[in-house]
Automatic annotation (TrEMBL):
Name of the protein in its database record: Precorrin-6A synthase (Deacetylating)
Gene3D superfamilies registered for this protein in UniProt: Cobalt-precorrin-4 Transmethylase, Domain 1, Methyltransferase, Cobalt-precorrin-4 Transmethylase, Domain 2
GO BP terms: methylation
Keywords (A to Z) from UniProt: Cobalamin biosynthesis, Methyltransferase, S-adenosyl-L-methionine, Transferase
Lineage: Bacteria, Pseudomonadati, Pseudomonadota, Gammaproteobacteria, Oceanospirillales
A GO term, aspect molecular function: precorrin-6A synthase (deacetylating) activity
All residue ranges annotated as the Tetrapyrrole methylase domain in the record: 4-224
Pfam families cross-referenced by the UniProt entry: TP_methylase (PF00590)
Organism of derivation: Franzmannia qiaohouensis
InterPro entries membership: 4pyrrol_Mease, 4pyrrol_Methylase_sf, 4pyrrole_Mease_sub1, 4pyrrole_Mease_sub2, CobF
Name of the top EC class for this enzyme: transferase
EC number of this enzyme: 2.1.1.152
Amino acid sequence: MIQLSLIGIGTGNPEHVTLAAVRALNDAELILLPRKGDGKSDLVDLRRLLCRDLLEASSRTRVVEFDLPQRDGRADYLGAVDDWHEAIAGVWAALMATHLPEGGRVGMLIWGDPSLYDSSLRIAGRLRDAGQALEIRVEPGITSLQVLTAEHRIPLNALAEPVQITTGRRLRERGWPDDAASVAVMLDSGGAFASLPPEGLYIWWGAYLGMDKQRLIDGWLEDVAASIIEQRAALRERHGWIMDVYLLRRM
């Protein structure tokens, strides 16, 4: 039996890691750290830092790094993601079989929270569906939306109004969701908000939330949309990658 703990580690600030997450890290016999390529080396560097600082001196936890399979960029997005997840599940299974052939406790450090636009739970489910004796545990983490609203010092929702959380792809393809007063947008490849009529929309945007290179912009969409797109492109060029999120509200 493998006990797999998916441990939310927040968005880049080590102080956001919960005590429960620290305990789960130290309970693990094996921690798997994914490498996503040189362009995103900051992400594995942070995980290495957390392991260095949070694992107790007496811990016998082994830390093993692996190269994450790359997603096919073909037009069939859902099919490409399905194949990608299958490939990742295969890598996980091979690593567990190699390093814990008799079973044991595995930890994986998940950016943000495992429940919000992260596929680790779905990938773990594939292992179980394939016959792996697997117990899945989750330690929740601080999400980018929590950090975004904290840094801008705003509530996520307008008074007594709903919020819809969506992706940049869906916002671009389907426009403003029905009956939503506020829309939180994640996984935007860049500027999906520019596809909306900007009148009456206010935006709170943040990139690299929780990290020392954090950037924030807010304002009426028609006034700041171009600045956000320009800033985003410059930051991506400078760092080789970008992770951003934003909240839109009808005012």
